[in-house]
């Protein structure tokens, strides 16, 4: 016997199962990406070490290079490339032209390039 409500319920359950699987896969991809990026930055920081930067200047970071922003600048602007910023437990990807303003407190932010291209960063006041 044809029961339209039962068919709707069955379809909704299938849709929910597909959405749950999609979200699970997205979470796995996010975790894998973060592990990859963390490893890259850790190796780069070991090579670069902690260097102070001068405010009001432009910084160029080669692919795989990372830098601690110490002391904390008021903000940065990405002039070219794509940057990965890690600060206060957050990972932020900034594209060319985007700006990020820091607020006081927390650890020193770490910035590096995303991918195999260098980035140019302007330290803004």
Quaternary state of this entry equals single chain
Spatial strand sequence of the major β-sheet: 1-8-3-6
Which regions contain 5 or more consecutive residues with pLDDT less than 50?
48-52
Say what the CATH topology is. Jelly Rolls
Give the second-level CATH assignment, the architecture.
Answer: Sandwich
- Give me the number of helical elements: 1
Q: What distance lies between the first and last C-alpha atoms, to the nearest angstrom?
A: 72 Å
In terms of DSSP E residues, the strand content is 25-35%
Order of helices and strands: HEEEEEEEE
Counted up, domains total 1
Biggest β-sheet description: 4 strands, antiparallel
Overall morphology: elongated
Please compute the radius of gyration using only Cα atoms: 21 Å
Structural category is alpha+beta
Residue share in helix: 25-40%
> Roughly what is the average pLDDT, rounded to an integer?
81
The level-1 CATH class = Mainly Beta
Task: Give an overview of the whole structure.
By secondary structure, the protein is an alpha+beta fold. The chain has a single domain (1-125), classed as Jelly Rolls (Sandwich), CATH 2.60.120. Strand 4 and strand 5 form a beta hairpin. It contains 1 helix and 8 strands, in the order αββββββββ. The chain is elongated. Strands 1-8-3-6 form a 4-stranded antiparallel β-sheet, with no helix packed on it. The protein has a 4-stranded antiparallel β-sheet with strand order 2-7-4-5, with helices on one face.
How does the SSE layout of this entry go?
Elements: H1 4-48, E1 58-61, E2 66-68, E3 75-80, E4 83-87, E5 90-94, E6 99-101, E7 110-113, E8 119-124
Antiparallel strand pairs: 1-8, 2-7, 3-6, 3-8, 4-5, 4-7
